[in-house]
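mind reviewing this stuff:

——
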Amino acid sequence: MEHQHRLPVRKLVAASIGNAIEWYDWSIYATFSIYFATQVFPEENARLALINTLAAYAIAFFFRPLGGYLPGRFADLHGRRMAMLLTIVLMAGGSVAIGLLPTYAQVGWLAPVLLLLARIAQGLSLGGEVSNASAYLAEIAPPERRGRYSAFFYISTGTAVLVASVLGFVLARTLTAGQLSSWGWRVPFLVGGVLGLVGLWMRRSLEETEQFEQNKAKARQLRRPLVVTLREHPAAVGRLVGFSMLSTLCYYTFFSALTPFAVTQRGAAAGDVFLALSIATGLFVALQYPMGALADRLGRRPQLLVWSTATALLVLPLSTLIGPGVGRLLVVFCVGLGLYTAMTSIAPAVMSELFPTELRALGIGSWYNLTVALFGGTAPLVIRWIGDAFFRYVAVAAALAFPVVLTLPETRGVELR
C-alpha cells in the first residue's frame, strides 16, 4: 500500500510567515501612503508630498538587489534558516520605526530622512527574504510535490495582503480622513512590528535543509558568484528576468498601485476599493494550493503560458472598469489576481529550479530583485504619472514574457541540482 504523503504544515507556515510579514509591511506602505504623505513631507503641496512618499517607496526597491545579494550569499554560505531570521528582524524593525516616525511639523526634514532609512532597511530585508524563503520551500519539498510546497509562499503573501486590506477597510470605515492622516496610518505599521515578533518566534525552530548541507562546501569554494551566474547560467538569468518583469508588474498593479489610482484618479471610494481587494485577495489565497497541485500534475510551462497570454489580452479591458462601484472593482481585482495565481503558486519552484544549490539564494536574490526594483518599485509612480497608459505598459510586458516562457525547460518532478 502506497504511503500517503503528509504536508509538514507547521514547517511550511514557519518558513512562509516571514514572507507574509515582509509583504504585509510593503503593502500597508503603498496602501496608506495617501494618508501619511503630508505628515512626513510639507503639507502645503499634497500632490508633491504623495509623489515624494511614493519616491521613497521606489528608492527602497533599489536596495532590494543588494539585499538579494548580501543575505542571498549569506544563505548560500551559512544556511537558509539564519538568513531568514536576519531578514525578519530587519523588516519588523523598519515597520516599527515608520509607525513611531515623527512628523515634518515636529522635526522638519529629519522626518523624510528617517522614513527613507526605515524603507532602506525594509528593502534590504525583502531582497533577501524572497530568495531565501523560495529556496527553503523548494529544497524541503519532494520533487513531485514542489508546486504544492511552493504554493505556501504566496498563501502567506496573500494572507498578509488580505490582513492589510481588511485593516485598511476597517480603518477607512471607522475613522475620518483627518484621523487617518493624523494618527490612524500608524496603527498598521505598529501591528507589523508585533507580527514580526511572532514570526521570529516561529522561525527559531526551523531545521536547515539537507540540500544546503550537502552543497555548502561548493558555495564556499566559489569566487565572484554573481559573475558565475552570468558566465555559467546566462539562460537562467535571462529567463528569470523575463518572467519576473511581468510577475512583479502584476503584483504591484493589483496589490499596490491600483488602490491610490482608483481613489485619486478614478473617483472610487476608499472603502469600496479595500472591500473589493479584500474579497479578491481571499480568492487569490484560496487558489494557490490547487494551482500548485495542477502544476505538479500538468507542468510549469503550460500554466505560465496561460497566465502571460490572458494578461496580455485582458489587462486593458479590465482597466476600463476601474471607478466607482464595488461590483466593477470586484471584477477587476478577482480576474486579475485569479489569473496571477497561475504564476504565484509555483514561483518559488520555477525560480529555484533555474539555479544549482550553491548559487540558488544569490542567483534568485540578485536578478529577481533587480527586476523588481526596475519594474515593481516604480509602478506606483508610473501609474501616477502616465495614468491609463500604464495598462498598455503591463500588456506589453505580458507579450514579452510569453516567448520567454516558451524557452523554459519543463521541470515538473525534476530533482534540484
